[in-house]
Write a structure and sequence with these properties.
single chain, alpha/beta, eight-stranded mixed β-sheet, 31 helices
């Protein structure tokens, strides 16, 4: 991947059209027509041996005849010719090509090589990038480039749209042009064989011309790159996603469409939420989201006021708002008194505001003005239903004038719904032209509002400080991995509760007491001494692992004859499998507690995103991705809490308010422990825990089934999100004998990190931030502590005070460009702990980390006044230079050649 190499995709200065044509209904003519009519200022060079000129533009017989190297080439030929064309373009020096042809992976050349693989090999050899194949092309309105086969152009705007489907592209384009909504870029990915969502998100997330991003996704290829890029972009601007394949049949269709891997829809949804993106369910919602994004301001809050000339539509809007989890604003006494002066006696006197059916343009305008001047709402929704007593367009005009004249217009969002068709059409057109969001139905307007609310909530959740896991909760990876390896060596692919006890205990997870007995008499004695209730199982490798029978369990909850029960089980086993060898019986003390609640937790292995954790209530027809809330590991206490809230909110989990039922902290702790177990042990493919008994603070795993991988993967390929790299923790001793821990930063570090930042002297803060600045806000500190370990690294140095509290002494951090070419670092050491070697220790650790990460360069900048920092950097091998114009010292290290430089 290279952001530098796709620069030419977004800012080409010249374009070549390979396979340009004058023939009707030929792709080469359609591309030329769109290029010539869009206002692109650079040279457009048709390449074809068939024509001297194409649409009046001088043509060139072949690529080698081109007068200049094109930044961008559009290949409009058949699939069979594409590999050779790409090779010649790459050799000629072209940087990016768009491939229109489809079906390349299914076709071969005369030597049996598939055309797509061959094309990628040629492009990679010469460093050329590819968009497509099967791409409709792209439109970049800011530079007047329409390099697409779209039926129409796009007007300039601030929204970027990226789609794997050409048909969705043309549909969205047609609708947007009708609404007067513009785009910063409009890109058809096609099969995304090279340039993919992640690189485009990285570019668009930094693009000043783009304020919001819309995605249409069939499938994801690079899960970790995609989530890292999406999370980085979503911190700065909203990303809306429409994802096909909600059903099993839809998944298969999506796989055929793009050739991607079919993942589970619920896991996709969990991934989108984790990255801070917002999912919309269909094109209608997508259009509504585009509408709201194009014209809205950032929400300050979630309070909505609805004003209408009819009670029915207002109630529909209010119902939709509450169902979607929104809030109706409360009208203040002052607002009610003011409205009493202008509205009929029969008005609703509450929110929603029913202004009565004869409301004319003056009543609408005065009501809206009062609401905009109050402090009662963050958003106002204006509804209108057709009426013989008032003119629709006249009312729309008065609303527009009122908004434009009001000084508070930039503090509020105003949404409109003009219901109906013929009578409402002109009013909606008037709003669109004025840049005011308008919708066909009350429910559609509310859904658009809730998209903005969900984005705001997601951003707040991403900034939430998680609780720390108690220090006394174990996480002994070595014990768990040893036991799992032993199971695999025995040929086991399934581990049941009694075999998983020690694995689960290594992570502080409570299971039921288990005894192994060799015969029926011993079972009777153990059961009687254990007390009831107990579960009696047969242990037989032949039975459990070599037949279709996966276990026989009998729960004994009274003074039943255990001997009779045991014999009954054994007889039943032999009826099912006469060859089964009964190795013994298992007695388990059931942890049933009156007033407790049963839930179910599973870990599934998604083909796209890998391990995913599911929380719900279970049942005989349990489908974890239909009946559970889903989240991706790693989880911390904040993310686990969000998962539990999602389960409760969607009724996947119901709090039955039992005496010893659900305890939020206990549930979150269990989910976090399970997450850590899954992260540490790639041997585990899936886990099903059914039931889990929740009895207040006590959580007990009653029945556990682990399925193991035959060939465990490492975490790099398995997990969608890079977990906390515990292996980078290091204990060191400073010059003064102080012992410090160097480790990557955690989200839980935010309070201590804020304290550390506030401890810096004014002089140190001036040097650190290149000038005076105010104290860090919570939002800023969340960005510094909740980092993506795949994209950036921050090491902190901590020590333990005499009071047993952790104290942060210093920090060094660096963020890397998406190409892994250069990391830029910054460092600070607590003012009262300088001069004891802490800065050197931190910077050495960062150098080692990025060198092992195969990053090419490490750079940093400091002020002229900070000569100590420059001296330290020079002593560690940095090249130090002075920028006299900017009054900065630049520190640069070639990590690839660091050892050679040092030895030289």
């Amino acid at each position: 991947m290279s952001q530098r190499s796709i620069h030419s995709l977004f800012k080409p200065t010249s374009v070549a059209v390979i396979g340009a044509s004058n023939g009707d209904k030929r792709a080469g003519k359609g591309i030329m027509k769109n290029l010539l009519s869009s206002g692109f200022s650079g040279p457009i060079m048709p390449v074809t041996p068939k024509y001297t000129a194409v649409m009046g533009v001088l043509a060139y017989p072949n690529i080698e005849a081109l007068p200049i190297k094109p930044d961008l080439a559009i290949i409009c030929t058949s699939a069979q010719k594409v590999p050779g064309i790409v090779e010649r373009l790459a050799q000629f020096g072209c940087k990016v090509a768009i491939i229109m042809a489809s079906g390349m992976a299914l076709k071969t050349d005369e030597h049996g090589n598939d055309l797509l693989t061959l094309t990628k090999q040629y492009a990679k050899r010469y460093g050329m990038r590819l968009l497509g194949p099967n791409s409709l092309g792209m439109i970049l309105p800011p530079i007047g480039l329409n390099a697409s086969l779209a039926h129409a152009g796009a007007i300039p705007g601030k929204i970027a749209f990226v789609s794997q489907s050409a048909a969705i592209c043309t549909t969205v384009l047609d609708w947007a042009n009708n609404k007067g909504i513009g785009f910063s870029s409009f890109i058809s990915l096609g099969d995304a064989t090279d340039i993919d969502f992640d690189e485009l998100l990285d570019y668009l997330g930094r693009d000043s011309k783009t304020s919001a991003i819309m995605l249409y996704i069939d499938s994801i290829n690079e899960k970790r790159h995609f989530l890292s890029a999406a999370r980085a972009a979503a911190r700065n601007k909203p990303i809306f996603v429409i994802k096909s394949g909600r059903s099993h049949e839809g998944v298969k269709a999506a796989m055929l469409h793009t050739g991607g891997i079919g993942g589970n829809d619920a896991v996709y949804e969990a991934a989108f939420r984790r990255a801070g993106m917002l999912r919309v369910n269909d094109l209608i919602e997508l259009f509504a989201a585009v509408e709201s994004l194009a014209h809205s301001t950032t929400l300050k809050g979630e309070r909505l006021i609805i004003m209408s000339n009819g009670g029915g539509p207002a109630v529909l809007a209010a119902d939709e708002l509450i169902i979607k989890g929104g809030k109706l604003a409360q009208l203040s006494d002052n607002t009610i008194n003011e409205l009493n002066q202008i509205l009929p006696d029969t008005w609703s006197r509450q929110n929603p505001i029913d202004m009565i059916g004869d409301a004319d343009y003056q009543r609408y305008a005065k009501t809206l003005e009062i609401l905009m001047n109050s402090n009662d709402a963050d958003t106002i929704l204006v509804l209108h239903s057709p009426s013989i007593l008032a003119e629709s367009v006249e009312i729309a005009t008065s609303i527009i004038d009122t908004i434009n004249k009001n000084p508070n217009r930039h503090k509020l969002n105003i949404l409109t719904n003009w219901s109906g068709e013929d009578s409402a059409y002109l009013g909606r057109k008037r709003f669109t032209k004025a840049g005011i969001p308008t919708y066909r139905t009350p429910e559609g307007a509310v859904r658009a509002f809730m998209h903005m609310v969900e984005y705001r909530r997601n951003q707040k959740l991403l900034q939430e400080v998680p609780l720390s896991i108690p220090d006394n909760i174990p996480a002994d990876r070595n014990i768990a991995k040893t036991l799992l390896q032993q199971a695999l060596e025995r040929g086991q692919t399934v581990v049941e509760t009694h075999q998983a006890v020690d694995i689960l205990k290594a992570y502080g997870l409570n299971t039921i007491d288990t005894w192994f007995v060799s015969d029926v008499d011993e079972a009777v004695n153990v059961a009687n001494s254990a007390g009831y209730p107990v579960a009696l199982k047969v242990q037989s490798p032949d039975l459990l692992y070599k037949s279709d029978v996966h276990g026989v369990v009998l729960n004994l909850t009274s003074d039943d004859d255990v001997s009779h029960a045991a014999h009954s089980i054994i007889d039943r086993v032999h009826q099912i499998n006469p060859q089964a060898k009964i190795d013994g019986l298992i007695i388990q003390k059931m942890a049933l507690t009156a007033g407790a609640q049963e839930i179910r937790v599973s870990v599934i292995n998604d083909p796209v995103f890998g391990p995913a954790i599911c929380l719900g209530e279970g049942g005989s027809d349990w489908d974890p991705t239909r009946d559970a809330a889903v989240a991706l590991p790693p989880l911390n206490m904040a993310l686990a809490r969000y998962m539990v809230i999602q389960a409760l909110k969607t009724n996947k989990l119901r709090d039955k308010h039992l005496p010893l039922g659900l305890d939020m902290n206990a549930l979150c702790l269990m989910l976090t422990q399970i997450s850590q177990l899954v992260i540490d042990c790639p041997e585990i493919a899936e886990i099903d825990i059914n039931p889990v008994l929740a009895a207040g603070e006590k959580i007990t795993l009653l029945d556990v089934n682990m399925r193991l991988h035959d060939n465990p993967q490492d975490n790099i390929g398995r997990l969608a999100i890079m977990p906390y790299p515990k292996e980078l923790e290091q204990t060191s001793t400073l010059k003064n004998g102080l012992t410090v821990m160097l480790r990557p930063i955690l989200p839980e570090d935010e309070p201590k990190h804020l304290e550390f930042d506030n401890s810096l002297s004014d002089e140190d803060r001036y040097k650190r931030y290149f000038g005076m600045r105010s104290r860090m806000t919570h939002e800023e500190m969340a960005v510094l502590t909740q980092i993506d370990y795949a994209r950036e690294m921050a090491f902190i140095a901590t020590t333990t005070t005499t009071k047993g509290e952790e104290l942060t002494l210093g920090a060094v951090r660096a963020s890397i460009d998406p190409d892994n070419t250069e990391a830029e670092f910054a460092m600070a050491v607590r003012s009262d702990y300088q001069g004891i070697g802490l800065g050197k220790l931190l910077l050495e650790k960062l150098i080692t980390y990025y060198k092992n990460n195969n990053t090419l360069y490490l750079t940093g900048f400091t002020m002229f006044e900070n000569r100590n920092m420059a001296s330290l950097a020079k002593s560690l091998g940095f090249t130090v230079s002075f920028d006299m114009e900017e009054h900065l010292i630049k520190m640069h290290m070639d990590l690839e050649n660091k050892d050679k430089q040092t030895s030289g």
